[in-house]
Design a protein that fits this description.
The chain contains nine helices and nine strands. It is α+β, with helices and mostly antiparallel strands. The chain has a nine-stranded mixed β-sheet with strand order 7-8-6-5-4-3-2-1-9. Helix 2 crosses helix 4. The N and C termini lie far apart (about 45 Å).
Amino acid sequence: PGLPPAAAAMRMNQDTALQGEKVTLVPYTAAHVPRYHEWMQSEELQRLTASEPLSLEQEYEMQRSWREDSDKCTFIVLDAARWPEQADEDCMVGDVNLFLTNAEDPTVGEIEIMIAEPSYRGRGFGKEATLMMMGYGVRNLELTKFEAKIGQENEASICMFKKLHFKEVAVNSVFQEVTLRLDVTDQERLWLLEQTKHVEEKSYTELKRPAGVLET
């Protein structure tokens, strides 16, 4: 049975690596789970992402479901200066996700970005990863609207999304979160494609094991 373009594309990213200047986005695999699990023990990250700590086993389960779900697209954010010379786990700085949660409108993607490594914050890594994910959403998933739900206290993230042309559309005082939105008009689309024209889409498997390099 044919999946809608966006749903089919969610699975398409299983071998997609997006190379930018500062970051490379790669699919979330089992190899990334231990480091990710370590990050999520941080109370600060639990608060900022409104998430509960999981056991390592639960985190592996979660990774498998993310990989198979047709309404989620997730990439791990790696430091492009260090990868692929170093192992993924040593280069991980965060993750970026797209959710297709609006059954009435499959062209809306909810975007989330987390730069988990404190030393990488405030250096443009989150901005580039978000732009790359938005570019991927517009090009590959036919998205025309983006939403971001961010905790009211997370001023750095709210400020970053506003710089990326998102507008505040709602405040939920119960969940203490702000909803920001961007409608991708023709003008916004051109801007987004211009911002991400340096991004190259490659095969993750091929990049990970460069041709002619023997495993030691």
